[in-house]
Amino acid sequence: MRRNMVKILKRSFIFVTIMVLLGLFFPTWTPEIPGENSISMLGQVEINGTGHEIMIRGADANHPIILFVHGGPACSEIPYARKYQKELERHFTVVHYDQRGSGKSYHFFEDYSNLTTDLLVDDLLALTDYLTEKLGQEKVLLVGHSFGTYIAMKAAAKSPERFYAYIGIGQVGDPVQSELDSWEYTMEQAKKAGNAKDVEQLELLRSAIERGEKHTPRNLVRKYGGAARLINDNRDYFLGFLLNPEYNGLDVIRFFKGISVTQDALLEEEVQNPLPVLVKRLNIPAYFLMGRYDYMTSVRAAKDYFDALEAPVKEFVVFEQSAHYPQFEEKEKFAAWFNQMFRQIHSR
Fold first, then answer.
1. Digit-coded pLDDT (tens) for 120-141
2. pLDDT of 18-48, one tens digit each?
3. Domain ranges within the chain, ordered by starting residue
4. Rg of the chain over CA atoms, in angstroms?
5. Distances (CA, A) of 7 to 12, 16, 18, 21, 52
6. CA-based torsion, 166, 167, 169, 170: positive or negative
7. Which CATH superfamily is domain 48-347 in?
């Protein structure tokens, strides 16, 4: 009886070990798209001396390129973005990439102590050149999301000739103003809900937020609907990590390691060098897309920046049902708007 139990335990241990190793190291890919000239690629490309993970998807590789710059910082959207972009893939070649030090572009023995947004901008411009050469196109449509707008706008200002237009989703403006808006909204909602513990926590943070030293706790912003209304972004990440083939277990470790190593310094850089001070003009069409209930990056701060920004064409678009993720929360409306915007650019 004892020998049988030992055998069972050994076999169980071996089975669990094998499953863990498979989970950590299984080969990753992105599903194919039917069509003679379709493209579905996931892999590492060396950009500016380090490996960057790139996902390219589209029904026709000759379609215009949309290049998404993720936010966070360090929060890749490759694990779940495919769920929301089927309509875009019909008309565009959609590119996501993990920024240096983020997600699958985090390398365990690489030094990120001197990582800055200027370096991320240079990576983005080099990646743009790689994509236009690979796909035989002249320019791309540049889309930043959340903190990704900080990087993308700096890139658009530095090298406008590479881009048809700039589109900022969850656009960052003055970070202190945005955080105060977030704090006021979250405090109001916590008081309405009668959550004394949340009210107390927020009250203790007020002075630090006013000085630009702290952020409104994101768990509370999410709790009161200031992050997402029509999707559950945390669940999307969890299911993407667990079920989608683009990330394996080791990549999930990279994802969280990248956040811990790079996020604080990049956010501090944003506070010290606000985007409205750095970029006052774009020489390409500029579009700010905001969810009505966005309190991760506040609508008011984005609108103030929009009003001050100079651009040959600019438009401020509000998605009435969304918070911080209108491209996912109202994906059909977003895709329709994107098609119309690109037609307008080409008709001018």
1. 999 999 999 999 999 999 999 9
2. 334 445 656 999 999 999 999 999 999 999 9
3. 48-347
4. 21
5. 8, 14, 16, 21, 45
6. positive
7. Alpha/Beta hydrolase fold, catalytic domain (3.40.50.1820)
